Amino acid sequence: MNLRHVREEFRRPTGRRLAISLAVVAGAMVAATAVVAVLESASVGLADASPVYFVAIVLVGSLLGTWPAIATALAAFVVYDLLFTQPRFTLVVDDPREWLDLVVFLVIAVVVGRLAALGTERAAEASRRAAESTDLFAISRILATAPDVEEAAPVVLRRLVEAGELERAWIVRDRPGTGGPRTIADTDGGSPVPNASIVVSLVRAPGEVPAHWVRAHEPGHDPGRRRGRPLVRVRMEADGVAIGALKATLAGDRREPDRTTTRLLSLAADQLALAIRRDDLRREATEAEIARRADALKSALLDAVSHDLRTPLASIRAAAGSLTDPEIAVDADAARTAASAIDAEADRLDRLVREVLDLSRIEGGSLRATLEPLVLADAVGAVVDRLRGALGERPIRLEVPHDLPPVRADAVLLDAILSNVVDNVARHAPAPAALTIAAAATPDGRVSLTVDDGGPGLSDAARGRLFTKFGAVGGSTATSRPGLGLGLAIVRGMAEAMGGTAIADRSPLGGLRIELSLPAAAPAPEEAFARPTGSAAARSR
User: What phi and psi values does residue 373 have, to the nearest 5 degrees?
Assistant: First the structure.
């Protein structure tokens, strides 16, 4: 029987512990008495072998503690008096000096037993404290390194079960107004939570008053019934806010946790409460920041849209007013001019509304791309032909070969992307700034399309904001780039919806380069490709 096994047995209920103590004391006494008998026999002839009993006393004190050691010392005194002191088999002692020897022996035996037990108890306490510190450090490290409590809690509970001699542990979170308490972690989540009529709760007082356990009947249960083992409950609070409770069932037949388990559960509950409170505050801060940014974006959207709406609406009202004013004579040419202005401003309003709606679809996740093989040269040619009037008199160079691999894209989204990029050049890099559109296959199975303009360009900081909402920025020169700032944000969103990318860089022509990367489609018969109507693929103007 080793030291650890004896200590574990000694912590069991009183009847078992008493039987083990008597057995150990009796065994030590028999062994020591046998050795004394041999040493004081005629063959050895030792006059006084009583110090042998000190070995038995030290052994019992190391294993069982102070009181068993004192009992062993008294037993050694009596046995040595009966068996080895003249006259034998009686407590009467002829020589008074023998009484002195026996009394000194008893005192020394008690002191030795007490010192041995005290040293053992201190060593055991130090070992328990070291193990407790290790467990608490591990729990703190788990909570500090995990991204949130939901991930850390199961690991912490498993550690508590192993270190605290628990059968099962779980965490119940109080969430008022959300349907009542909720179990956020459980070491045995596959089975129902234990139900018992007795709950042992830890009561903690402020200051240096030690915590203690209080047994009580669980509300809603019949006090006369005893179902299952008692539940252990430690309340969790942080910053005066009730967080929930750490609950557990004890292993074995113990009625309540020992001191080590009590400290471990108490400190673990405090750390879990702080971690949960920290996550709550971080979540609330994140939600507040999201709400703040949403309000800022809404304000920016309203300001920008209202400004962009007022300008075309004012132009439309002015042109329509001149047509309807009976005091103004309007000939056919003036009527056509006013109608053209109304049509242009209405087209501007339509483009603004479409941009806002497209961006809402992208952010709401409702944008769905229908991917099919498309010939990029035909798509580019169709967009350039449609916007040629807006591009004005400028050098236009298209370098999009027909023998490029087809791209896997949505025809409507691809046309919208190209239209936005080319229209961006028309509005912000006015003629005679050059325009070059080139495409090439890349080794990673994609097709790269670059749109370069010879406009004023943008600074590095401005290019970083180019694809953000309301990211309308000024050029690197005094030339401004007015607008709502949605077009290129829509370009990136649509490109990503098709598995592509969109980036901005400095153009070799001196202005801005927009580079699109789209996945190439698998080779297929030529008639399977969608070919938008348009001009030839490689032209120079």
Answer: -70, 130
Domain ranges of the chain: 3-134, 166-285, 302-364, 372-540
pLDDT in tens, the chain (541 residues): 444 444 444 444 456 777 887 888 888 888 888 888 888 887 777 877 878 887 888 888 777 777 787 788 788 878 887 888 777 777 776 667 667 766 776 777 677 777 777 877 788 788 878 887 888 888 888 888 888 888 888 888 888 888 877 888 898 888 655 556 788 888 887 788 777 778 888 887 776 667 788 888 766 554 444 455 678 889 988 888 888 888 888 887 777 888 888 888 888 888 888 888 888 888 889 888 888 876 765 665 566 556 556 667 777 777 777 777 777 777 777 788 878 878 777 776 776 666 666 666 655 665 677 889 999 999 899 888 888 888 888 898 999 998 899 999 888 888 888 888 888 888 888 888 899 999 999 998 899 999 999 888 777 777 666 776 555 554 443 444 344 455 677 788 888 888 888 888 888 988 889 999 999 987 644 444 445 544 333 333 3
Report how far residue 280's alpha carbon sits from residue 290's, in angstroms, rounded to the nearest whole number.
Answer: 15
Read off the pTM. Answer: 0.48
* Homologous superfamily of the 372-540 domain (CATH): Histidine kinase-like ATPase, C-terminal domain (3.30.565.10)
Do 355 and 490 touch, CB atoms closer than 8 A?
yes
C-alpha gyration radius of the chain? 45
CA-to-CA distance for 495 and 486, rounded, in angstroms? 14
The amino acid occupying position 155 is V
